[in-house]
Design goal:
Blueprint: H1 2-62, H2 64-70, H3 75-93, H4 100-120, H5 136-147, H6 155-170, H7 177-255, H8 259-286, H9 292-307, E1 310-316, H10 324-343, E2 349-356, E3 360-367, H11 383-393, E4 397-402, E5 408-415
Parallel strand pairs: 1-2
Antiparallel strand pairs: 2-3, 3-5, 4-5
Helix pairs in contact: 1-2, 1-3, 3-4, 4-5, 4-6, 5-6, 5-7, 6-7, 7-8, 9-10, 10-11
Length: 417
């Protein structure tokens, strides 16, 4: 038995590790999906903003007086314009791609920034730190911070201002004290914008997690409310009918003297009492008032009185609250084992042990019956298969050790949190 127990512990630990990894992977996948949807929505907004700027650019290139004012005459500005139009459309087409969308959007933003720095450096607009387009760098800082709220990702717009200053020096334009103050002012604004957007992004992420948790709580609350409603309906309907059946059986027992008929009525009353006990147990589980150890002890005590089977029950460890469906699965396994021992195994003694460990629950049921070959279950008998399926549903391992003339040992190990 110790060998079986050790083997079960090892196998269940593997199952427990897989379930933990699966839960973490599911949570990470849900978070990644939300991040992707948020990025796609923001990237689409960037595309529409680009269309607006490209429309203004087309107007400037199309009106001769405007193009002369900005110094954008000749084939080079046209080539730059159509290049921007091309990569903007290409970026829009790959926005939904998991990795390519983020990478292409980042690269095109950097290209936009290069074009903007080139426009700022043009002498027709005052050049460098005197250009009226300098404030547009704040817009790019916001776009980078909104789409990529990470320190390294927002370096390009933060470096644009020093690069603009360096271009002034390369073009032999001296930087005055006022222009230096302007540079510091815009750098300060850049850092403020980055801080605010990153802070709001973290708050949004935290709020999303809270909303997801709240949705889970609301779903659980809805399930509890529905269970309570069903419990009330079943108790008032089916429970009342079974109680009436027991009372009528008792009345018939009093007015009937025939031994055979009294025996039939007694069996009918016993069956009704078992049914109402099963109903009460199910209702307690639905209302989450069921305690597994106490429920098993009451059930085994009743079965000992009814079958005259010597049943011993032991519990070790610190019990914990389990989900109702998990408790029901464990209880059904014990029910099936006791039923098999009483009806088929011709057993006289039955030992039931329930052990609570830090990360698993171990149940063993052993009888001294005539035993059987587990792989040769008769056709139409699904008790063993049902036990295996109940264990598998919750990531547990169920082992049946039996042979003709050697009794039976059923070991169930379930991972619990």
């Amino acid at each position: 038995m110790e060998g079986i127990t050790d083997d079960l512990k090892e196998r269940v630990q593997q199952v427990l590790d897989r379930r933990r990894l699966s839960r973490n992977a599911s949570a990470a996948e849900a978070a990644a999906s939300w991040e992707k949807d948020r990025f796609v929505a923001r990237a689409r907004a960037l595309f529409y903003a680009r269309l607006m700027f490209l429309s203004i650019g087309l107007l400037i290139l199309g009106v001769e007086r405007w193009s002369e004012y900005f110094g954008l005459r000749g084939p080079v500005p046209l080539a730059v314009y159509f290049t921007m139009l091309f990569y903007s459309v290409a970026n829009f087409m790959v926005i939904d791609a998991p990795r390519a969308g983020r990478l292409v959007t980042y690269l095109t933003l950097c290209l936009d920034l290069v074009v903007l720095v080139g426009l700022i450096a043009r002498p027709q607009l005052g050049g460098g730190l005197q250009s009226p387009l300098l404030a547009t760098l704040l817009l790019f800082t916001m776009l980078f911070a909104i789409l990529y709220p990470r320190p390294l990702a927002i370096l390009p717009p933060l470096l644009a201002l020093p690069i603009t200053t360096r271009l002034d020096l390369l073009l032999d334009r001296s930087v005055t004290a006022v222009e230096l103050l302007t540079l510091l002012w815009y750098l300060s604004l850049d850092f403020v914008v980055v801080y605010v957007i990153v802070y709001l992004n973290e708050r949004e992420t935290a709020a999303h997690r809270e909303v997801v948790e709240l949705q889970g709580d609301l779903k659980e609350l809805a399930v509890v409310e529905e269970r309570n409603r069903l419990a009330r309906d079943i108790h008032d309907g089916l429970g009342g009918s079974l109680s009436s059946l027991i009372l009528q059986s008792e009345y018939l027992m009093q007015v009937t003297q025939e031994p055979e008929l009294r025996q039939e009525i007694r069996e009918l009353k016993t069956t009704a009492e078992e049914a109402i006990e099963e109903l009460r147990r199910s209702l307690r589980m639905m209302r989450e008032d069921f305690e597994l150890g106490q429920g098993l002890e009451e059930f085994l005590r009743n079965r000992r009185d009814q079958t005259r089977l010597g049943i011993q029950y032991e519990q070790s460890g610190t019990p914990r609250k389990l989900a109702p469906d998990l408790q029901l699965a464990i209880f059904r396994v014990v029910q099936e084992c006791v039923s098999n021992a009483a009806k088929h195994a011709e057993a006289t003694q039955l030992q039931v042990r329930l052990g609570w460990e830090p990360d698993r629950l171990l149940l063993t049921v052993k009888d001294d019956g005539k035993g059987f070959t587990p792989s040769a279950s008769p056709a139409g008998h699904y008790g063993l298969r049902n036990m295996q399926e109940r264990a598998g549903r919750f990531g547990g391992i169920l082992v049946i050790d039996s042979a003709p003339g050697k009794g039976a040992l059923v070991s169930l190990s379930l991972p619990v949190n």
